Amino acid sequence: MGPGDIKKTLQEEAKRLNIDKIGFASADPFTELKERLKDHRKAGYESGFEEPDLEKRTDPRKTLPNARSIIAIALAYPTRLENPPDSKPGAYRGVFCRASWGEDYHRVLKRKLEGLKVKLLELVPDAKVEIMVDTGALSDRAVAERAGIGWSGKNTSIITPEFGSWVYLGEMITDVYLPPDQPLTQSCGECTACLDACPTGALVAPGQLNSQACLAYLTQTKGMLAEEYRNKLGGYLYGYETCQAVCPYNRKKNFTQHEEFHPDPDQVKPLLKPLLRMSNREFRQRFGKMAGSWRGKKPIQRNAIIALGRYRDRTAVPDLIHLLENDPRPVIRGTAAWALGRIGGSEAEEALYRVKEKESNEQVMVEIEKALHECGIQETANHRTYREA
């Protein structure tokens, strides 16, 4: 069986496996990407989650010696919640971004790629294969672009003509030669909707992202979130997707052909207050199968606290005071202090003064001082309103 026949058989197998798109690319080094990544690193725009070795990120043969081809796949995911639960005072909810709905996409794509691997080994028993999804050395987007899956949008996502950028990407490197597909010539044109909508200016130029200012990245960090970003998160607990939501290619698109990605509305839009006292075990049981759980409960709890502070939910004050007084993690205590300052009131203010007397962490003390200042401003404003009335 020749290379063309093997490719055709894999395309047919992809349909059987319910893979939405499949493309084939050469395993030549990504020379242009390497230069861009050097500039990206020099500018300090990396997230720190990437493979640090630029040779591995841009040369498939560093992963699989004698690599000749890369098989890229894409799976489309849903964008709409059916009957979403309401978020209301006293029962505010957060939200996980669409890319974390349903089962963790890493697992799903790996199963699909394993299916293709089985078929390839039936055709070429001595073939060598390496599968990677998101956490591998190569850039999924660079591979998908070369394989004709889509083009690289100004928001740095791969945009497909059929599914917009609502797709998960994965790839399989092999030492078998397979005829490559041609990259798409389509582009974003003059549209700058994503750059204009980015609330932090993280999209510093078309196709160039400063990860350190990207809210999607920041929701996954474990440290204190800089104050300049706290009010911009909205109710997001994991991820952020404004740059995709405003994209014209994504309008009115919703894909439900993969049952694994169907969201549980109460899971992807959970009540915020119960998250604050959730144990590790409870967190794993409820959210462990989601992509958004990969960093553990700490970032999710921190983001939930920020959301409650932003909503100024007075019913959350007792829970926030409990965290401020008892949580062993400085990040959680400090964020709780910030939220209490935002909400204000005598109960919050008294707790802040009480904890100030015993708190030893410098970072938390800074947050307590700022929170007390915020409470003072609110109290002054309340007195002024009372006198004027």
UniProtKB/TrEMBL annotation:
The keyword Cell inner membrane does not apply. GO terms for biological process: tRNA queuosine(34) biosynthetic process. It comes from the Bacteria. One of its GO terms (molecular function) is epoxyqueuosine reductase activity. Keywords: 4Fe-4S, Cytoplasm, Iron, Iron-sulfur, Metal-binding, Oxidoreductase, Queuosine biosynthesis, tRNA processing. The keyword Iron-sulfur applies. Residues 179-208 form the 4Fe-4S ferredoxin-type domain. This is Epoxyqueuosine reductase.
